[in-house]
Amino acid sequence: MPSVNIWKRARDGWPHWWSAVLDRLNPAATPTAATPEPGAPGMAGPSASAADTHLGLARDSLRALLADEAVPAAVRERLAEDYSALSLLLERLEHGHLHIAVFGRVSVGKSALLNALLGEQRFATSPLHGETTAASSARWAADPELPGVQRLEDGGVFLIDTPGIDEVGGEARERLAREVAGGADLILFVCEGDLTATELNALRELAAEGTRPIVLALNKTDRYTRAERALLLEALETRSRGLVRPEHIVPCAAAPAERTVIRVDAGGREHESRERPAPDIEDLRETLWDILAAEGKTVAALNAGLFAGRFCERLAREVVELRRSLAETVIRRYCLAKGLGVALNPVPLADLAAVFADVAMIVHLGRVYGLPVSHTEAGALLRTLIAQLALLMGSSYLASLASSALKGATFGLSTIVTAGAQGAVAWYGTYVVGLAAQRYFAQGRSWGEGGPKRVVREILASLDRDSLLAEARADILARLQGDPR
Predict the structure, then answer these.
(1) Can you tell me the distance from the alpha carbon of 43 to that of 152, in angstroms, rounded to the nearest whole number?
(2) Is 210 a residue whose pLDDT tops 80?
(3) Is 456:388 a contact under the CB 8 Å cutoff?
(4) Who's near 289: CB < 8 A, 6+ residues apart?
(5) Could you tell me where the beta strands, DSSP code E, fall in 284-371?
(6) Closest by alpha carbon to 419, among 466, 357, 350?
(7) Which tens digits make up the pLDDT trace of 110-134?
(8) Which of 71, 177, 221, 364 would give a disulfide with 251, using CB separation of 3.0 to 4.6 Å?
């Protein structure tokens, strides 16, 4: 994929090239994909070749974003963390990594559940409230006996533990958990009973994008009778309707409580002991692998696309802000040069010649926005603006000419004062022209609905004319009197 021109993207709004990529990544657009059921996140899996195509598109697009040389260095610096995240995401796709993030309230057994899936103690567990304080991960080996696992690449599946939500003073941990879950390919949402209001709100947020599958695991089912468990599962299905597929609501018991076991030996003697049953997680294990085999690659590619789309939006905003800042600097420099030129020129009619400085300013603004114009085009644009200013600011121009005549007929301090006033009017006029030209270039060399008259009117209405004139006059007088500020 060719390098993306960020300057053009910022000008045109949403990146059309990326929209095309997202359309191609959408499994619903491919003949081999099934239509997802209404209200349910996740999609039925496309063919293996279609999934590989999705991943290839995502990888190419991320490489193009990272390699785009049109991005200004200042913007790259301000988005350093985003670029780092983009690089890590590309690395994940290139190695075929899939991430499952566990999410839920503190002390519902998230870490214990991951340990049970792994078959070893890799994640810290503790009876203390909120043991997990940072995200951690471990590779989950594929079970070759499960159907469809051979469709996954050898890159590996990673289980990611996150801090719990709904903890007093744990806002930073909760934010981290949401960020990690937002970058995962599959969410394992763990609860230990009926959903609380906090859990339900979190589940809605995670399902809002509608791209990554969510598995709702009812943990600690060993605490309930068979009838109680059935009622809980029914309640969870009702509360999560439209957020989680019914078949993705799975009961489990990561660390069943110890229970008393009585054994009778050959001599008829009873022996009592306390034993912990094996974890009950086989249904959950099969559900997770089935989803990964059917949807893993496509979901990974689509999530990468959404992440890159959000990155493009942030990038465009930063470029727009950088241009706005540069344009403001350019406009004010030309305003001061124009104001000083008019103030220092004792010939009234010669003041009119200073208007050609505005042409140079418009040419400069075009370069800032990556839309170069010739001096002839800039002159035509300036004539359009002057015509609108003459209609909307007729009295200002009459005052300007009167002040110019007064300046030519006076000397000494009065000359400096009237020259400063005349220069301030010129400064103000150039400022309005500059803002209007900036709007024109920012909109892709378009005046938009209503034409230039509406643009100039809106700019005039938004400015505090008296304070700007006072600012301009003070700056000009300071320069005339030798102050280098």
Answers:
(1) 17
(2) no
(3) yes
(4) 142, 143, 146, 148, 149
(5) none
(6) 350
(7) 888 999 988 888 776 544 444 444 4
(8) 221
As a whole number of angstroms, the distance between CA 354 and CA 457 comes to 23
Query: Which one is predicted more confidently, 233 or 299?
Result: 233
pLDDT digits (tens, 9 = 90+) for 21-80: 445 444 444 333 333 443 344 444 455 567 777 778 888 888 888 888 878 888 888 888
* Burial classification of residue 93, based on how many CB atoms lie within 10 Å of its CB (0-12 exposed, 13-18 middle, 19 or more buried): buried
CA distance from start to end of the chain: 49
Residue among 366, 375, 262 nearest 323 (CA): 366
Provide CB contacts within 8 A for 293, sequence distance 6+.
Answer: 45, 146, 147, 148, 149, 151, 152
Q: Which amino acid appears at position 242 of this protein? A: G
Whether the predicted pLDDT of 350 surpasses 70 = no
Of 21, 219, 9, 19, which Cα lies nearest the Cα of 103?
219
Whole-angstrom distance, CA of residue 410 vs CA of residue 407: 6
Identify the structural domains of the chain with CATH numbers, from first to last. Answer: 6-315 (3.40.50.300), 345-480 (no CATH)
> What b-and-e string marks burial along 287-323, b requiring 16 or more CB atoms within 10 Å of the CB?
bbbbbbbbbbbbbbbbbbbbbbbebbbebbebbeebb
Alpha helices (H) in 135-281, listed in sequence order: 171-182, 197-207, 226-239
By C-alpha distance, which of 389, 394, 404 is closest to 352?
Answer: 404
User: In this structure, what DSSP letter does residue 399 have?
Assistant: H
Angle at alpha carbon of residue 182, lines to 116 and 242, rounded to 5°: 85
Tally of CB atoms within 10 A around 81: 8
Q: Which two tokens stand for residue 300?
A: 């990974």
Beta bridge partners of 187: 101, 214
- List Cα–Cα distances, 153 to 217, 263, 287, 358, in angstroms: 26, 47, 18, 61
* Percent of residues, the chain, with pLDDT higher than 90: 19
Neighbours of 189 (CB within 10 A): 26
Tokens linked to 35: 């239509």
Count other C-beta atoms under 10 Å from residue 339's C-beta.
30
Minimum mean pLDDT range among 50-64, 236-250, 376-390: 50-64
Q: If we measure between CA atoms, which residue out of 176, 194, 197, 159 comes closest to residue 281?
A: 159
- In whole angstroms, how far apart are CA 411 and each of 13, 408, 417, 419, 478? 54, 8, 10, 10, 18
100 in Cβ contact with 288 (< 8 Å) = yes
Pairing of the two strands 214-218 and 270-275: unpaired
- CA 168-173-177 angle, 5° bins: 125
Q: What is the pTM of this model?
A: 0.60
